[in-house]
Amino acid sequence: MDDIKRYRLHAYGRVQGVGFRWFVKRLAEAHRLTGFAKNEWDGSMTVELQGTVRAIETVMAAIYRGDLYIDVEHMDAEEIATDPHDTGFYTI
Predict the structure, then answer these.
(1) What whole-number distance in Å separates Cα of residue 57 and Cα of residue 19?
(2) What kind of fold does domain 4-91 have according to CATH?
(3) Which residues pair with 8 in a beta bridge?
């Protein structure tokens, strides 16, 4: 079985006001990831994803690709401690 990891992402570009949180939520749920997505005051987005590394990498790649409205110019990622009480994916 794959180890469970948690990553915090900071996405920059055209990511607010374009359905980014819901886009990430659908991806995360499709890949059985938990965590959250939220707007930041500077126009960026913070996303935390918890699950298998393979699923996280798949979702990160899809986030980079974006869609018709979402355009991620840059994204930072760091591994952080897992949250054993995390049970779903939320938008904040």
Answers:
(1) 21
(2) Alpha-Beta Plaits (3.30.70)
(3) 48, 78
- Picking from 51, 38, 45, 46, the residue whose alpha carbon sits closest to that of residue 82 is 51
**Antiparallel, parallel or unpaired: β 34-39 and 4-14:** unpaired
Look at residue 9 and tell me whether its pLDDT is greater than 80. Answer: yes
Considering the candidates 8, 14, 26, 39, report the single residue annotated as catalytic.
39
Q: Which of 48, 40, 50 is nearest to 12 (CA)?
A: 40
Helices and strands of the chain, counted as H and E runs: 2, 5
Specify which residues 4 forms β-bridges with.
Answer: 52
pTM: 0.92
Catalytic (active site) residue 26: no
Catalytic option among 6, 21, 26, 65: 21
**Is-catalytic flag, 8?**
no
Residue pLDDT, tens place only, 22-57? 999 999 999 999 999 999 999 999 999 999 999 999
